[in-house]
Design brief:
alpha/beta, Rossmann fold, seven-stranded mixed β-sheet, 7 strands
């Protein structure tokens, strides 16, 4: 299957990628994620659609006492909810919301909310919280506005996980966080499903909950 994919894509150095798919990428579950079109590990369990280096960085640092807010939902919601105390996730796509809600109905530590984009409900939902979340995830729509609205809801030692920071159109949001005293650590690499590298970043201050 992978050989056919590589031929179709016209990928250079096909042999190298093919060998990677038999070792590192296979162990990460990349092959299976490509086959099923879902961010999952080698055992078929949910993964965030982040880069693999960022996932490995987060795994040992997440605390069972953590509360997390996700701007955007998906397999990451399932992944976080099995590792932390509380997850609040918002979603703007009603079809995706309905599909994922079925998987989340038995998870009592998840508040899964459908919020409309046009009315501003989506980007403004986080304004209802004050110093509540250890981690805020920026991985959906209206990312710059969500980041700008997030600081009141973030604990003093909280961090922001922002996916796809290789996209220059988010620079206004990055600059906003820098101006508020945040530093940034980047995790470049491949991730589930993807054929090329991207970047997931963590914005943090000294004394943060992840020990950076």
């Amino acid at each position: 299957m992978l050989k056919k994919i590589l031929i179709k894509l016209g990928v250079k150095n096909k042999f190298i990628l093919y060998k990677l798919s038999k070792s590192y990428l296979k162990n990460e579950g990349w092959n299976l994620s490509v086959k099923q079109g879902l961010p999952i590990d080698k055992d078929g369990k949910a993964l965030p659609w982040y880069t693999y280096p960022s996932i490995h960085f987060l795994i040992p640092r997440l605390g069972k006492e953590f509360a997390i807010f996700e701007c955007g939902s998906g397999n990451s919601t399932l992944w976080y909810s099995s590792r932390v105390k509380k997850v609040v996730a918002i979603e703007h796509d009603i079809k995706w919301y309905s599909r994922l809600k079925e998987k989340l109905d038995n998870r009592t530590n998840v508040d899964y909310l459908f919020k409309d984009l046009g009315s501003g409900e989506y980007q403004d939902e986080i304004l209802n919280y004050c110093k509540f979340f250890d981690i805020i995830v920026i991985d959906g729509r209206q990312r710059i506005k969500c980041a700008q609205n997030s600081l009141r809801a973030l604990k003093d030692n909280g961090v922001i996980v922002w996916d796809n920071t290789d996209r220059t159109r988010y620079e206004e949001g990055f600059d906003f966080l820098f101006s508020n005293g945040f530093k940034r650590i980047d995790f470049w690499g491949m991730g589930p499903i993807n054929y090329s590298s991207s970047c997931t970043s963590i914005f943090y201050k000294e004394g943060n909950c992840l020990g950076i």
